[in-house]
Design a protein that fits this description.
Strand content: under 5%
Shape: globular
Number of strands: 0
Oligomer: single chain
Radius of gyration: 18 Å
Structural class: mainly alpha
Length: 281
């Protein structure tokens, strides 16, 4: 029997989603861990996807000017080939092309993403493994190229990295920002493109998951419409604050802070699993 979500769970999970969506620490992994640790259950992939609409709305509001400028340049370029040399026109295509990998893989493996991929042994493993990937990107990345030097090749590579975040524990922003650093982008440039790249994919996933979030068939907690709205609004407000903080943080601080946190959390989850305090599924 599917359990109904409580209002305490709604508020806590909305806060967790808002805090972790844009940080390279995996929001889906944190929602899975928090749900299991405090309530011995799983909020579910559908609830996660729907509340991500709140954090993506925060991206739309925060980057409204950039998004409007890119969209206008893209449409102008479609109508006038003389406008196709503009960076914003190209950026529109980079976001579209970069979204393709996660769209294809998300569709092909949606059942695995909702079930086996949420095993906490896997989540803990991915937290640690991708902490090492982020550390390598920070260490080897030259961090010289601004976002104006982004290319189609960069978009494809970072889009492919975004697709890895279908596995809880990887982190969408962690994957894309790391790929950007390996490509020589500055931290701020990689983070900005990461935010823009997430908009179509995460929005589509959230809308697609709405029916399942209202009536999950054995998958996660059953949240009411009011609870989904409240959790999404909380995620929006906190997500907006997190975006502003992260963009300031990455200018003067390395990604090693997040690496240390991920490793500690991954080891903690391994310990809790090994001692039977929490269940992997």
């Amino acid at each position: 029997m599917v359990e109904s979500m409580t209002w305490l769970q709604t508020i806590v999970l909305g806060v967790v989603q808002g805090l972790t969506e844009f940080l390279p620490i995996s929001s889906s992994g944190h929602l899975r861990i928090v749900s299991e640790l405090f309530w011995d259950t799983d909020a579910g992939a559908s609830f996660t996807a729907v509340t991500q609409l709140g954090t993506e709305a925060a991206v739309l509001v925060y980057f409204a000017r950039d998004i409007g400028r890119i969209a206008m340049a893209w449409f102008r370029g479609l109508l006038d080939e003389n406008k196709r040399g503009e960076h914003d026109y190209k950026m529109g295509w980079y976001v579209i092309v970069g979204t393709i990998p996660v769209g294809i893989l998300g569709f092909l493996f949606k059942d695995q993403v909702r079930t086996g991929a949420r095993n906490l042994w896997l989540v803990a493993t991915m937290l640690i493994v991708f902490a090492l990937v982020i550390a390598a990107a920070e260490y080897y990345g030259r961090k010289r190229r601004p976002i104006e030097q982004l290319t189609l090749k960069d978009g494809v590579i970072m889009g492919s990295a975004q697709a890895l975040a279908l596995i809880p524990g990887v982190s969408r922003s962690g994957g894309t920002i790391s790929a950007g650093l390996f490509l020589g982008l500055t931290r701020e440039a990689a983070a900005r493109y990461s935010f823009l790249l997430a908009i179509p994919a995460v929005t589509a996933a959230g809308l697609f998951s709405l029916p399942d979030a209202f009536a999950p068939a054995g998958e996660g907690l059953n949240a009411s419409g009011a609870q989904l709205i409240v959790a999404t609004l909380i995620a929006f407000v906190i997500g907006y604050i997190t975006i502003a903080w992260l963009l300031r943080f990455v200018v003067n601080h390395s990604m090693y802070w997040f690496v240390g946190y991920r490793i500690i959390l991954g080891l903690l989850v391994f310990g809790l699993l090994g001692t039977g305090v929490i269940s992997a599924t």
